[in-house]
Design goal:
25 helices; single chain; about 70% helix; about 0% strand
């Protein structure tokens, strides 16, 4: 007899439109609320079967935070007996064919996975197979465009997932493309385009490595990206690979990081797209802020703003399309926080974060840590506590080491304000 967990959702509840909508969006707080209200499944049972702390289940049910870890999504699927297809996963071992699932066409299942990908791609990182390099073949421009488009689609994972979930996928893509550069045949122009895609993929894998705490791997991948971009004669990814190296170097030799960032801006040409120019100047500003160079920081921020304001009608590479006015305001607030200018930092960070969607959980948690830092420097521990609490909720379940690393020193500085009710609530939330 097949084991049926006590938290298995009743069939009529599983098929209800509101439950299907919540599952498709990976809105597990709503799933848990519906399970309790209409299925009689207590939060304590859900917590035990899903291997989630009871406090965490309650917080999710109240709308605080999201689950974006693949392992937890799988655990919820098994505990609630939610068919994998409803969550963007492969079929689970316990599934048996039912009219609802067996009649679903491959096209509809694919469309559902695409919608899940846009809304919350938690299960998709593992659902997507790692691409393996084919045998010897002749590559043409259409093959390169297909590779570039796949790389862009996979980049969307980084919006909602941490590097712990995406590193394997991104590294596999990079390794498969690297094998193509060795095993396939192609024209000189196609070879340069292939190397350009390889440079993008190395950066993508490097970012995921850095995000998951694999810093040495990240440095190696950024350097390989730089080499590939140089061989391709493509200055845009070359500048971006140097900017990534500078960003990582900030934790060590900060003046050296600023020098590397300056080299990344030297890669800008008259043909560099507007958002790429803005991105490189923005990262230059960060390196200068970390090195306590306020004038250079302000000059780089101004250059980034001018690049965005000028714009251009040409195509923008996918890896730079996220750079916009909101992002630049948030970055400026981070930099003024780093330069210990809280009165300049708080207004721009607050305004920018008000327009920043919670679905970008990792990045918003990181940005909130700078807002909390700025509030502390301004002598507002209660406001800092509120920002820390929001950051902790957003970062919970995201497979990234960076939010917690950023929050640890802020939590330590908050401790000196114990006795204030808002501050006293934070340690308990941090322990969840």
């Amino acid at each position: 007899m097949t084991y049926e967990p006590p938290t298995a959702l009743p069939r009529d509840l599983l098929s209800s439109p509101d439950m299907r909508e919540a599952l498709e969006a990976h809105d597990f707080g709503t799933v848990f609320r519906l399970a309790r209200a209409r299925g009689g499944i207590s939060y304590s049972k859900t917590a035990a079967e899903c291997d989630i702390k009871p406090e965490r289940v309650g917080a999710l049910a109240r709308g605080n935070g999201r689950i974006t870890s693949f392992d937890k999504v799988v655990a919820i699927s098994d505990a609630l007996r939610v068919p994998g297809g409803l969550l963007g996963l492969a079929s689970r071992p316990w599934e048996v064919p039912t009219p609802a699932t067996s009649t679903t066409s491959a096209e509809n299942r694919s469309d559902m996975r695409r919608r899940t990908f846009v809304q919350a791609a938690s299960g998709l990182a593992a659902a997507l197979p790692v691409r393996t390099a084919p045998g010897a073949q002749r590559l043409g421009p259409s093959d390169i465009e297909a590779l570039r488009a796949r790389t862009a689609r996979l980049r969307r994972l980084d919006t909602v997932l941490g590097g712990g979930d995406t590193y394997r996928v991104y590294l596999g893509e990079y390794q498969a493309t690297k094998a193509l550069t060795r095993d396939a045949t192609y024209s000189e122009a196609t070879g340069r385009a292939l190397l350009s895609v390889l440079a993008e993929q190395a950066q993508q894998a490097g970012r995921a490595a850095f995000d998951s705490g694999r810093e040495a791997d990240a440095v190696g991948l950024y350097k390989e990206s730089s080499t590939a971009a140089t061989e391709a004669g493509d200055s845009d990814p070359l500048g971006n690979s140097l900017a990534f190296l500078a960003h990582q170097q900030v934790a060590g030799e900060r003046r050296e990081a600023a020098a590397i960032a300056a080299r990344s801006c030297e890669a800008i040409t008259p043909h560099t797209p507007a958002r790429v120019r803005a991105l490189l100047h923005e990262r230059m500003a960060w390196a200068c802020a970390a090195a306590n160079l306020p004038r250079e920081t302000e000059r780089a921020l101004l250059a980034a703003e001018e690049a965005l304001d000028a714009g251009d009608d040409g195509p923008q590479p996918d890896w730079a399309v996220w750079v916009d006015g909101t992002e630049l305001r948030i970055m400026a607030g981070r930099y003024w926080t780093e330069l210990r200018r809280p009165l300049r930092a708080v207004p721009v960070l607050s305004a920018g974060l008000a327009q920043y969607d919670d679905s970008h959980a990792r990045d918003k948690a990181l940005y909130l840590s700078w807002l909390a830092d700025a509030y502390l420097r301004a002598g507002e521990p209660e406001e800092a506590s509120t920002a820390v609490g929001r950051a902790l909720d957003l970062a919970s379940g995201v497979a990234s080491v960076r939010p917690r690393q950023r929050l640890e020193p802020v939590l330590s500085r908050l401790a000196v304000h114990r006795g204030l009710s808002a501050v006293d609530e934070v340690p308990a939330r941090a322990a969840v």
